[in-house]
Design brief:
Blueprint (H helix, E strand, L loop, with lengths): L6 E6 L5 E7 L8 E6 L6 H4 L11 E6 L13 H17 L8 E6 L1 H13 L4 E7 L5 H9 L9 H8 L18 E6 L7 H10 L4 E6 L12 H16 L6 E8 L2 E7 L6 H6 L1
Parallel strand pairs: 3-4, 3-5, 5-6, 6-7, 7-8
Antiparallel strand pairs: 1-2, 2-4, 9-10
Length: 280
């Protein structure tokens, strides 16, 4: 698989569903920690792995898994069930392997970002040392409302339909403040056609310190480690070093730069109000 050694892993959640994942050990010693990756919607772990495949070369173990009803995992997709799935994934890392995972970095993209934020906000597991969310939505009802606004006659019924047919009990925005004091990074592209930019701003505003927001000008959906990988990969690794060492440091806010990707502008102010981020 992409030339990387990996293990096919099967483990059960508390609902009795057998889940499937891939474990990729770090290729660098000493190991800095383990990235627990939550993928996006409509595909399985093989589709999204390219975004995070380089973590083992940077000194991190990588563990990614399919939620129930995805890929080779049993069961049916269920927002409530994702809490049990995430619990089981962390338990596998902590108790199911001979090696200590070290500090766990939770990284979620799109739907996976929403699931990860909700899970850490609800569970606040002690093993999690940092949380990264890219292109996540703030609530299920709100993203449904946004999508219906673009579909003909449905826009006239978007308010009642989004409330009647979508459950926000497992939305990330109401619980994201509970992630504190674990360091939190939220990333969002300003031209995201799937999850509008305001979702990222709302999540950042609702979160408590320590938190950072990286705004990607002209960025679309989950662009950080794809289109702008050359620019953002070293910045992401530097963020993890700071987060794992609890060393504070400047908060990056990005403005439009060269064709290779946005150039960073650094400020010592850690807590930007959302309007300041947009206007820089």
């Amino acid at each position: 698989m992409f030339g990387f050694p990996h293990e096919n892993v099967y483990f059960n959640n508390s609902q009795g569903e057998k889940l499937h994942g891939w474990y990729l050990p770090s290729r660098v010693k000493p190991v800095k920690g383990t990235v627990l990756y939550f993928h996006g919607n409509a595909h399985n772990i093989s589709h999204f792995l390219v975004s995070v495949i380089e973590f083992p070369d940077a000194g991190y173990n990588l563990f990614t898994f399919d939620y129930q009803g995805y890929g080779l995992s049993e069961g049916s997709p269920d927002p409530e069930g994702t809490l049990a799935d995430a619990d089981a994934a962390l338990e596998y890392l902590v108790k199911g392997r001979e090696q200590d995972p070290g500090p766990v970095i939770v990284f979620g993209q799109s739907l996976g970002g929403a699931i990860a934020l909700n899970w850490v906000g609800n569970r606040n597991p002690s093993q999690v040392a940092a949380v990264i969310s890219e292109s996540a939505f703030a609530s299920y009802q709100q993203i449904a409302h946004d999508k219906m606004n673009d579909i003909g006659i449905l826009r006239w019924f978007r308010d009642p339909f989004s409330r009647w047919f979508f459950d926000d009990r497992f939305a990330p925005q109401p619980v994201i403040h509970r992630i504190s004091p674990t360091p939190l990074l939220i990333v969002h592209g300003t031209r995201d056609p799937i999850v509008p930019y305001h979702h990222g701003l709302q999540l950042f505003e609702a979160a408590s310190q320590p938190k950072e927001f990286w705004s990607i000008p002209e960025g679309r959906h989950t662009p950080m480690l794809v289109r702008y990988r050359r620019r953002y990969w070293p910045l992401l690794l530097a963020y993890l070093e700071r987060a794992l060492n609890q060393s504070g440091g400047p908060s990056p806010v990005f403005v439009k730069g060269s064709e290779s990707g946005p150039d960073p502008v650094f400020s010592s102010q850690l807590n930007y109000p959302p309007e300041s981020i947009k206007n820089l």
